[in-house]
Specification:
With 205 residues, the chain is an alpha/beta fold. The protein has helices at 21-33, 68-79, 96-102, 107-110, 128-140, 155-158, 169-173, 175-192, and strands at residues 7-12, 38-43, 82-88, 115-120, 150-152. The structure holds flavin mononucleotide. Residues 14, 16, 19-21, 88-92, 121-123, 125, 127, 129, 155 line the site of flavin mononucleotide. Pfam families: FMN_red.
Amino acid sequence: MASDKLRVLLVLGSIRDGRQGLKVAKFMKKALATRNLEVIFYDLLEMDFPTVKQPVHFYGPDRSGAPQILVDCEKTIQEVDAIVVVTPEYNNSIPASLKNFLDAFPDSAFGFKPSGITCYSQGTYGGLGAAIALRTTLGILACPCVSRMFAIPYVQNVLDDDGNALDDKLNTDVKPMLDQLVWAATAVRNHRKCAELPVSSFFGS
Ligand SMILES: Cc1cc2nc3c(=O)[nH]c(=O)nc-3n(C[C@H](O)[C@H](O)[C@H](O)COP(=O)(O)O)c2cc1C
C-alpha cells in the first residue's frame, strides 16, 4: 500500500566545489524528518545532472528519445506532494545549475504542488535575492511557493558538516515555512483527488 505520508522532493541547487549547500540540505533533511514526511533528496552534483539541451516535454507526449534521467526526474516531480528548494545566492539570483534543472520540466509535472524556499549566503541577507528570483520561476512552473521563506545568513558559521545547527535560532526560523508547506501540500493533495488539473502549458506538457 502506498505511504500516506506527504512526499517532499528536496532539491539542492549548488554544485560548486567546496559548497556550503550540502550542510544546508542536511539540515533541511532533518527538519523535514521532524514533520513525518517522506523525503526524496536530489543533489544535482551527486546525480551528475546534465546540462539540458532540450526540456523533457520538448520530446513529445511519449518522451521518446529523452535522456532517462529527465524522464525519471519528471516522474518523481509528478509523484511528490511538495518541493523544497535549497539555493545559494549567486549574483542576486540562483545558480545556473538550479535553473538548468528547473527549466528541464513542464508546469504540468509540478501541477500546483507548493514549494518552500531555503536560501543562504555568507553575508547578511541570507540569499534573499536568490529567493526572490526563484519565486518567479517556481510560480510560472505551477509550483507556487509559500509566503514564508527560510533564509540563512552567514551560512559558513551556523552549521556543522553534518547539518546540525550551531545556532538554535535556525531550528526556530525554519518552522514557519515548514508549517505553511505542510498545510498547503495537504490541501493540494486532497483537492487533486477530486479535481482535474487546469494546467495548460505554454510549451506543451
Ligand atoms: C558566482 C557567485 C556569486 C555570488 N553572488 C552573491 C550575491 O549576489 N550575493 C551574496 O550575498 N552572495 C553571493 N555569493 C556568495 C555566496 O552566497 C556564498 O559563497 C555561498 O556560500 C554560496 O553557496 P555554495 O557555497 O553552496 O556555493 C556568490 C558566490 C558565488 C560563487
